Amino acid sequence: MGTDGADMTRCLTDVPLFSETMAPRLLLVLLCSTLLGPGATGACPALCQCYPRRAEVVCSGVPLTEFPSEGLPANTTMLTVQYSNITAISELQLSATPLLEGLHLYGNQLRSLSPDVLRGVPLLHTLDLTGNRLADLPAGVFGHAALTTLVLKNNLMEAAEAEWFPDHSSLTWLDLSGNRLTGLPATLLHKLPHLESLDLSHNRLEKIQAKSLDTLVKLERLNLQGNKLVRLEPALFHHTSNITNLYLTNNRLETLPPSLFQGLGHLKVLGLEENQLGHLPPGLLDQLSSLDEEGLDLTANPWSCDQKVEYLWRWLQKNKGKAFLADTVRCAAPLPLAGRALLSLTESELNLES
């Protein structure tokens, strides 16, 4: 006979000595799974769909007000609860599925998480909390599972805290986009040495601290789009040489340091559109030897087509194929040239003739 999540929960709580650390907890999970039988499929919760062959449960767009722990197959490895009215989730409820590897809770009404909410799911590697009502989180909340992917997109967070994570976290993907962050502590990023993708887009960031990215040597994708960045530190990216995709779109950048992209020889895509750039400093783009075709977006900036734009003008002539819609990179000033495509201008019009 199969077992459900309630049987598993009772098994786990009957032996409290094993719940103090992740390793003993994992041993207990395996022990209970063996004792309760390999089937452990149980019934399917009301309003949910169960897929036994892949050990997956999906509860989507149904009028749930509580986490559906009753009836969950104890061997569930993938669980999706989305677009419901759930406001909270407890450690006890999650412990009904101790073999869980992926938990997707997007589009609910979650307002808080307990510090130990993940204690009963030590195998969890993917947690998606997109589109909830989370404003802050307790210290240690992500320390009970070896997460590799964490999505906190479109919540109400005004601050991200280093205390959320254990030292030397295993995270490779972190998405904090669509929140209300005004800053990001360097101490948080220093706990994430394995990070490959970091999405901070559509927040309210005004500055990225110098050296805050220095430990992210494996970082490949960084999205800072849609913030309020006015300036960037000259050495901000000097230790992130593996970046292939960098999005600085839709900020308030007026100038860029000449050495900003030094060492980014693997960069394939660079978004600089929708800023307040009037010029680029000579040499800024010279080291970007790996840019994809149309990999650089410079559109929707107020380019000032005077002598200071010479570097960009000559770079575009040599690398037109690397720029997205190169012919739409247009002058905003001086007035006689406003609206003209930069590439259409002559040396005489730019006052470059000696």
Describe what this molecule looks like in 3D.
By secondary structure, this protein is α/β, with parallel strands linked by helices. The protein has 5 helices and 14 strands. The chain has helices at residues 5-13, 22-36, 91-94, 186-189, 310-318; strands at residues 49-51, 56-60, 78-82, 102-104, 126-128, 149-151, 173-175, 197-199, 221-223, 245-247, 269-271, 296-297, 303-304, 331-333. A 12-stranded mixed sheet has the order 1-2-3-4-5-6-7-8-9-10-11-12, with no helix packed on it. Helix 5 (310-318) links the parallel strand 13 (303-304) and strand 14. Helix 1 (5-13) crosses helix 2 (22-36). It is elongated and about 80 Å long.
List the topology elements.
Layout: H1 5-13, H2 22-36, E1 49-51, E2 56-60, E3 78-82, H3 91-94, E4 102-104, E5 126-128, E6 149-151, E7 173-175, H4 186-189, E8 197-199, E9 221-223, E10 245-247, E11 269-271, E12 296-297, E13 303-304, H5 310-318, E14 331-333
Helix pairs in contact: 1-2
Characterize this entry briefly.
This protein is an alpha/beta fold. Helices cover 12% and strands 12% of the residues.
